[in-house]
Amino acid sequence: MPAPPSPLADDRLTDALAARLRTHDWATLDLPPDTALLVAAREEAITHAASGRLQPAATGRAGDRRHAGLRGDATLWLDDPACGAAARALLAGLDQLRVELNRRLLLGLDEVEAHFAHYPVGASYARHRDRFRSDDARVLSLVVYLNPDWPGDAGGALRLHLPEGPQDIAPRQGTLAVFLSDGIEHEVRPATRPRFSVAAWFRQRPRAG
Questions:
Q1: Residue 203 and residue 209: Cα distance in Å, rounded?
Q2: Which of 63-72, 86-95, 128-137 has the lowest mean pLDDT?
Q3: Are 174 and 35 in contact (CB under 8 A)?
Q4: What is the percent of the chain where pLDDT is above 90?
Q5: Domains in the chain, ordered, with CATH?
Q6: How far apart are CA 76 and CA 192, in angstroms?
Q7: What backbone phi and psi angles, to 5 degrees, belong to 170?
């Protein structure tokens, strides 16, 4: 029998995350930046980027897909056959977090999708929401950052556009941000150095049309 996945967050941290999401549309956690899974995921992401496996990301779906203008990152889905052990372990850990949050919040979270993302120097992602017009499956959006020793003046923040004003989240290794996919507009600010992350979405089952 395979070993269970390494949890991204223990029960205490998951309880705190769920409690925050009950009263707010977003939350953050600070995971230990030297967590073995995060270190391995960063190394794998760098290898994929250097090998050209990460491809320029698009926005929208089907006939509405666009490859230029809104975003400047390159991505690789964690379930791609080119991905290795760290990606598979991280995807399993994210799925375990999905199960635990669903148990606490009863959001109907049925599956997780996730990809590596690499933003080169100066790249950004314009203000947007994470739900597609033709698909309401995404419920929670999540980002895990993979950038150790990130300086405060390097930029690259995830900016959440909240009713009370913008909230910037620095892309430091171990920072985990989660927010409602359909409720919060957000953007990725340009940075003075390249940066890596894993973006994920916890999805509900498609509704019968």
A1: 17
A2: 63-72
A3: yes
A4: 81
A5: 11-55+72-204 (2.60.120.620)
A6: 23
A7: -70, 145
CA distance 75 to 86: 16
What's the pLDDT at 3? 46
CA distance 161 to 26: 11
Torsion sign across C-alpha atoms 178, 143, 124, 75: negative
187: amino acid identity, one letter = E
Angle at CA of residue 96, ends 185 and 206, nearest 5°:
55
- Count Cβ atoms below 10 Å from residue 168 Cβ, excluding itself: 11
- Closest among 41, 30, 42 to 5, alpha carbons compared: 41
The closest of 28, 30, 25, 70 to 162, measured between CA atoms, is 25
20, two tokens: 């925050």
Burial class (CB in 10 A: 0-12, 13-18, 19+), 113: middle
| 86-115 mean pLDDT | 96
Average pLDDT over residues 159-180: 97
Q: Phi, psi at residue 96, to the nearest 5°?
A: -65, -40
What's the distance, Cα to Cα, between the start and end of the chain in Å?
39
